[in-house]
From TrEMBL:
Sequence ranges assigned to domain Magnesium chelatase ChlI-like catalytic in this UniProt record: 192-397
Domain of life: Bacteria
The name this protein goes by in its record: YifB family Mg chelatase-like AAA ATPase
Alphabetical list of Pfam families matching this protein: ChlI, Mg_chelatase, Mg_chelatase_C
InterPro entries: CHLI-like, Mg_chelat-rel, Mg_chelat-rel_C, Mg_chelatse_chII-like_cat_dom, P-loop_NTPase, Ribosomal_Su5_D2-typ_SF, Ribsml_uS5_D2-typ_fold_subgr, Sigma_54_int_dom_ATP-bd_2
Organism: Enterocloster hominis (ex Hitch et al. 2024)
Positions of the Mg chelatase-related protein C-terminal domain: 405-500
Amino acid sequence: MFTQINSGGIRAVRGYVVSVEADVSNGLPGFSISGQLASEVRESQERVRTALRNSGFRFQAKKITVNLSPAGIHKGGTAYDLPIAIAVLGAFEQADTRELKDSLVIGELGLDGCVKPISGVLPLVDAAREYGLKRCFLPAANVREGMMIEGMSIIGVESLGQMAAMLRQPSSIGQCTPSMEEGVLEETYDVDFRDIRGQLVLRRAAEIAAAGMHGLLMNGSAGTGKTMVAKRLPTIMPSLTREEDIEISKIYSICGLLPPDRPLLSRRPFRSPHHTITPLALTGGGAQARPGELSLASGGILFLDELPHFSRGAIDILRQPLEEHKVTVTRVHGSYEFPADFMLVAATNPCPCGFYPDRSRCSCSELQIQRYLDHIPRPVLERFDICVDASPVTYEELNGAGGTGEDSASIRRRVERARNIQAERFSGTRIRFNSRMGMKETQEYCTLGQEEGSFLKTVYETKQLSARRYHKILKVARTIADLDGCGLISRKHLSEALGYGMLEERLWG
């Protein structure tokens, strides 16, 4: 007998529906699975056979053929165990699979027949909804995650025997309906900007960077607070909308990185890979084409500490994502597109030992310093709209002289106001932030008065600025004006924006 039920697979960061077909016929007894399968899917026949036996099912010796369609797409993961088992039961007429015509079935099986949790539930349930299915049978441990997708009925399954019993008595199937309240999770952080003492310039630069999604490069000796500032940047960025939260959580769901007690991430990502990371780990890909660090940072912060210590290949790989905000990876099984819409933040020391220009502690030669700084390619360096020095913290600042700094909530309110101005400004376009403006938008939204234009012209000619640097100044000045609630860019805004390029000019020319 032939039977067919719906399951799902993941390609890049999107789910798709897979048809699991099973047929039982006379012939040489055996169990075969086809459909361009990864090793873990081929191995599922042993898990399924043993789980069926240990769940109390007995079959005649028949030829069992299972096909996963479409056969032209490579399939990996362990989510096919449960649907294969149910399809086999249906083919042996030991389960009525007619109840599953409008359902998606996914889950990994243990040898005792228990249904184990899987990764990638969010994109799989979302794909089922787009395909027109009405409900999903998921591992019981994944029910809360599946309920985050609206418009789908979710049924939790704890064992193969339990699901077979539900199919024998459809009236016993208990469905969980998604609730908006279930998806409203508190956004919590363990850090706050009030923890930072001193570093007023660094704090201000971080606020401007967050408001306009500008790339931020911090330079300074070890222990001056660069990493502290970077880790607190998500706390001053606007809260995620539900749509953003689901899209970001899909990526973490695929990688199995969602917090065990939270079905959604519910806060801006912060990724800080070690400098030994490979280009492949940054972009994603591999045999199963999974997202990398650039995709995990999408919607939040990618922090590269000790930037010159990263391999040249890892730094160069950032060029396309910073330009297109996505990563395209080509492998034997096809091309995969991953999101990479993040804010780039990096920190560097002024020299290999980290103490320059304090010659009482720094013994690096000028050649060593130059080689160290030249390790950052110019095309990537140009992506940092704001470059700022982190000065050493004084004893008085460290011990709270002048009171504690402003907290993250107060800074976030200003950032949100500036983001709202940008949302209104770029309404109807694909641009969302000042940092993403092209030449046309810069000319339209960064107009200068006569006095401001004369001032910038003098600076441009005196310092022999490049066209790239000129447009960076205008974009940053536009963000500073938005933070001040000003429709026009003033000389004060231009002067501050110019100051955030002095470090780049001093160190790299």
